[in-house]
Design a protein that fits this description.
Structural class: mainly beta
Radius of gyration: 24 Å
Strand content: over 45%
Shape: elongated
Number of strands: 12
Distance between the termini: 59 Å
Helix content: 10-25%
Order of helices and strands: HEEEEEEEEEEEE
Length: 203
């Protein structure tokens, strides 16, 4: 084999190895994800929710519901050296039959949108795992109180500290505090929700 041919083969092999290395790096980056690389297209996902609901004069009930969430990421920013991105909640709903209350449902109050939802990497430059917080106002109706509609007084706030992907896939979000619901007609606080969690993107 001539030296020229041997040199050509070495150059070609080196180029192929370099391309393979770039492809692998790109694939790893896609799998791991970075805050800047996330798709801004809206996504829809399933929720399995469990919340403790207290209703004045009726008692406290363990509400197991299913629902859906629609959200998308927006502007990226730096949060103390960690990559972060705003999150916009486009739709949210939960529904289920609750023993003692009957059919109960909640949905996003589109008339009162809230800012502040975000996704932020836990360690600088890693992308994932990440922490996500979401803030929204909700509307509630229950079969036990026919003809009445309730809305949140304070934000319905949930948090997950170990997301490994976007959109979330099987991530557990915990309610960050007790939420009060007022009667939209009288302003009376009738419903409170506490100790809640939801599995988002589980199916």
């Amino acid at each position: 084999m001539s030296k020229k041919l041997l040199l050509t083969l070495i150059v070609v092999a080196g180029a192929l190895a370099l391309l393979s290395s770039w492809a692998s790096a790109g694939k790893q980056q896609l799998v791991a994800g970075t805050i800047e690389d996330l798709s801004t297209e809206p996504f829809d996902c399933h929720e399995a929710c469990g919340h403790l609901i207290a209703v004045a004069d009726l008692g406290t009930f363990d509400a197991q519901m299913t629902g859906s969430l629609t959200a998308r990421v927006g502007q990226t920013y730096n949060d103390g050296g960690r990559g972060a991105v705003t999150v916009e909640i486009l739709g949210s709903s939960m529904r289920g039959y609750v023993e003692g209350l009957g059919e109960t449902r909640l949905w996003l109050d589109r008339d009162r949108p809230l800012d502040g939802s975000f996704l932020r990497e836990n360690q600088p430059g890693t992308g994932f795992p990440a922490t996500q917080e979401m803030y929204s106002h909700l509307v509630l109706q229950t079969e036990a109180l026919p003809g009445r509609t309730f809305r949140t007084l304070n934000p319905f706030s949930v948090r997950s500290e170990n997301l490994d992907s976007w959109p979330p896939s099987g991530a557990r979000f915990e309610l960050m505090g007790t939420v009060e619901f007022e009667d939209v007609d009288t302003g009376e606080v009738v419903v409170t929700m506490s100790r809640g969690s939801a599995i988002v993107g589980g199916g």
